[in-house]
Amino acid sequence: MRTRLVIERLLMALLLPIAMLGLAQRPIVTQIDASIHDRMLRLASHTATPDIMIIAIDERSLGELGRWPWSRETHARLLERLAPHAPRAVLLDLFLTEPSINPRDDERLAQAAVHAAMAGRTAMVVGRWHGRFVHIPIPVATGSRNQVDPNGDLWMSVLEATGQPERLS
């Protein structure tokens, strides 16, 4: 009797997940799941505070600026247009995995992001390290260093990323 009970439970443990996977692929189950998910999102949503602005990529933006992906120059212009409004933070949720066709666009975006970070409008610094642009969280960049070597890699990458001359005349 005990062996039969163990075998039944093992079979249930093995077959139940297979049955659930089979059911999960049914269109009606997928529709029910999506409907429940949508209702849960509505219940959990709340009104955003008026001091938060989301600049989204929507159909209107695509119509005005062209198909996605946009050039880094376009993103740089966005940061430059935001700067006079002194936002407390800017989050760019982008994957820029390939170099731009025009390297100047990469440099312009990096400079706009660095200037925004230097003004306290982002939580990261963009710089060049070993010939590549990198994103460094500000606490990491400033956490353990009290002074900057004016001939070191860090300062040279800041000068390069911001387009400043090496020596002021």
Short description:
By secondary structure, the protein is mainly α.
Instruction: Count the DSSP helices.
Output: 7
Give the integer mean of the pLDDT values.
Answer: 78
Q: Quote the distance from N terminus to C terminus.
A: 94 Å
Radius of gyration: 26 Å
Strand neighbour order, sheet with most strands: 1-2
Instruction: Describe the sheet with the most strands.
Output: 2 strands, antiparallel
Count up the domains.
2
State the share of residues found in helices, binned by percent. 40-55%
Low-confidence stretches: none
Name its key features.
169 residues, mainly alpha, 2 domains, two-stranded antiparallel ribbon, 2 strands, elongated
Give a structural overview.
The protein has two domains: 2-44, no CATH class; 59-162, no CATH class. It starts with a helix and ends in a 7-residue tail after the last helix. Helix 4 (72-82) runs parallel beside helix 5 (103-118). The longest helix is centred in the N-terminal third of the chain and has 23 residues, at 2-24. The chain has helices spanning 2-24, 27-44, 59-65, 72-82, 103-118, 138-142, 153-162; strands at residues 124-129, 132-137. The protein has a two-stranded antiparallel ribbon. The mean pLDDT is 78. With 169 residues, the chain is mostly helical.
List the helices and strands and how they pair.
Elements: H1 2-24, H2 27-44, H3 59-65, H4 72-82, H5 103-118, E1 124-129, E2 132-137, H6 138-142, H7 153-162
Antiparallel strand pairs: 1-2
